[in-house]
Amino acid sequence: MSASLPGKRDLPASQYDLNTYWGRVRQSADIADPRTLFVSSAGLESAKSLVSSYKQGHVQSMTPELWRAKKTVDSTLHPDTGQPVFLPFRMSCFVISNLVVTAGMLTPGLGMTGTLLWQITNQSLNVAINSANANKSTPLSTSTMVKSYFLAISASCTVALGLNSLVPRLKRLSPATRTILTRLVPFAAVASAGALNVFLMRGEEIRRGIDVFPSLSEDQKRTLAKEGKDVESLGKSKRAATLAVSETAVSRVLNATPIMVLPPLILVRLQRTEWLKQRPRMVLPVNLGLILTTSIFALPLALAAFPQRQATAASGLEDEIAARVNGDGMVEFNRGI
Prior knowledge:
The chain contains 13 helices and four strands. The longest helix is centred in the C-terminal third of the chain and has 33 residues, at about 240-270. It has a four-stranded antiparallel β-sheet with strand order 2-1-4-3. The radius of gyration is 22 Å and the shape is globular. It is mainly alpha-helical and about 325 residues long. It has helices spanning about 20-30, 40-55, 65-75, 95-105, 110-135, 140-165, 175-200, 205-210, 220-225, 240-270, 275, 285-305, 320-325; strands spanning about 210-215, 235, 310-315, 330-335.
């Protein structure tokens, strides 16, 4: 994120209105744009230099080139560390990284071994993405990460195998209904374990708190920039951390819902058509196409559910933080993605 680069002058948060849902959708679409994955190291350094020039006052106004540089920086760098997020775990690579895994989980007729392997693969990817994009003001220990990883795998596999064994026993339901429910088993496993995964991987934030900062007006930010001062943390808040992690967990479920529900339901209908019955080899390409199309639209819609730079009333946080901003003021924190 551009906030991690040197300079006292903040860039505008976005060229879109982040106070509105659709403004955040457009901003999230920029962050999730796969084209930023092809920016070279030299291109990234050039974008960082241009953004830093603005923050240091050498560039006076936002230009189309500067907005493109900010997009590159925001989609590549972690907002807390300023370092590039490992490419497969960036939000701009989320659709591509998840495509094969999702297709595997949604493959019709998976046996127990296939179900276990794909659930383990999916949770391994989730752990990597959650860890790479978490708030870094409260690091997660390796032992906690390993423990969280195995708990998430246990949860997803238990849900998947349990429902797979339960659905065939529902004799009162028609075969067609049982088929649909079977196709939706991966969604139940992914949604429950995905939310649990976020809480497990970022539990240290809830236990120790994350940094919160005063919410400043543009005039106050300009004054600090002229004085060469940084915005100092008000302290660590466990309540802000709980809010950040909870919202991230909800956004994960919102993202998984259309991806894990729409493609299997549509595929069930398509498999009844003569065209697909005569072309069984097309089931996999059609499934991949459905998942890819749904994922492209679902990701920015889910990411935009909550602002990444979250603002909340200080009165709802710990007393010592509320006292530092007179209780009625607003504070900000990085929610993570």
